[in-house]
Design goal:
Length: 415
């Protein structure tokens, strides 16, 4: 069996994690899978004889999600991905709020420009344009995911957001021409508030990943390789097992290896926690990301990439982060039925008010809260999960060993 960890983009709620887990579990050759919404990562154990990593990626992509590439040597790309998501969501919220604010103000102050256009006051057409921009452009991410889920006969929180806002928007367009009151502001404000929640989520996820990024940044980006008697500085990605590298005093050792010439004191505190340096002579093993203190060393590389001790530590921490506390597993099970239940209740509410009340406007008014309110409630739960993860990241030693125990409130002595 082989294990891999994949970073999954476009997951918006715990239902997305459940959907990915279901798709992967149903794939022949995959023995075990754990998709964690809080970290946006999937820990997959599979049989290389039956399936390869490329096919596993295709399963996730076919399910409507993207795979984000990461590098094990440093945390810069990982940090860039996180910052990019934060900036993208923040900008979407800001611009959405700018367009939604005039609609919100009209809930308190009835405006009229006195200019008629196709028998409607110009302010009505402005409201239509503003709502269209917010609902269809800034809300496109939710509609896209809702369509992808519907194509698989599934539903998630994006389905609720999309159905609720589109119902209010489409009804308002009809009401505009029918001479009735519309709800453009409701649709626009729901999208804007959800984007604000997504921004807070991206921030908290970034905080929770700081410990991982700190580990990744311990690695060295470049190494001096000895070739034909000359020192050539290359990326560590280009170093191969058996290459000879030169490490001068006060420099970090790029990769795991064996000293073939020289002696020095090595600071291995990042591995052992021991503050005193360790004397290393010819034939001794050294490890990447440790610090050469006072001598020039020639080192023959023995491990590169995922074979280094640092990479193994990072992998262990990632696996720990992907473990789930019992309460989180219970929440994921609830999420699997939460959205379909809300959709059913909303549909029954609409049909009941429409057939027994005979007023489609009243029916929509009573049904839309069932779509929008659970979205906010579920968002609160998601924010709480992110806060737990961020808090646990601060307790680094305990969190790395058994995060599920930490998050479930049990004693660390159970390790």
């Amino acid at each position: 069996m082989k294990k891999i960890i994949l970073q999954i983009a476009d997951m918006t709620c715990a239902s997305c994690a459940v959907s990915n887990e279901r798709a992967l579990r149903e794939t022949p050759g995959i023995a075990k899978v754990n998709v964690n919404f809080a970290t946006k990562k999937a820990l997959i154990e599979y049989d290389p004889a039956q399936i390869d990593e490329k096919k596993i990626r295709q399963v996730i992509e076919k399910n409507g999600y993207r795979i984000m590439e990461e590098t094990m040597n440093n945390g810069h790309s990982h940090m860039a991905n996180g910052n990019s998501e934060i900036n993208k969501t923040r900008n979407a919220f800001i611009f959405s709020a700018i367009f939604a604010l005039p609609l919100l103000l009209q809930m308190f102050v009835m405006l009229s420009l006195g200019i008629q256009f196709f028998a409607k006051d110009l302010i009505v057409w402005i409201n239509l344009i503003l709502a269209t921009i917010v609902v269809l452009i800034f809300g496109w991410r939710f509609h896209r995911m809702a369509v992808l889920q519907a194509a698989k006969f599934q539903a998630n929180m994006d389905t609720l957001i999309s159905v609720g806002t589109l119902a209010a928007y489409i009804y308002s367009v009809w009401a505009m021409f029918a001479g009735r009151a519309g709800y453009f502001e409701s649709a626009a404000i729901i999208i804007t508030l959800i984007l604000l929640g997504k921004y807070f989520e991206a921030l908290s996820t970034g905080q929770a990943g700081e410990a991982m990024r700190a580990l990744m940044e311990l690695g060295v980006k470049n190494a001096r390789v000895l070739k034909n008697g000359k020192e050539i500085e290359v990326s560590v990605d280009g170093v191969k097992v058996g290459d000879i590298i030169i490490v001068r005093p006060s420099e970090k050792i790029p990769l795991d290896g064996k000293i073939i010439d020289g002696s020095s004191s090595i600071d291995e505190s990042m591995l052992t926690g021991e503050s005193l340096p360790v004397e290393k002579n010819k034939g001794a093993k050294v490890f990447g990301a440790t610090i050469n203190l006072d001598g020039v060393l020639k080192i023959k590389v023995t491990q590169v990439g995922e074979g280094t001790v640092l990479a193994q530590i990072i992998k262990t921490v990632e696996e720990a982060q992907n473990s789930k506390a019992p309460i989180q597993k219970s929440a994921d099970r609830v999420s699997g039925i939460f959205v379909p239940a809300v959709l059913l209740i909303a549909a029954l509410t609409f049909l009941g008010w429409y057939f027994f009340g005979g007023n489609i406007s009243i029916a929509i008014i009573n049904a839309v809260p069932f779509w929008s309110s659970p979205v906010h409630a579920h968002s609160v739960w998601q924010r709480q999960q992110q806060l737990w993860l961020a808090a646990a990241a601060g307790q680094k030693t305990a969190y790395y060993l058994k995060p599920a125990i930490v998050l479930s409130g049990q004693k660390i002595s159970q390790q």
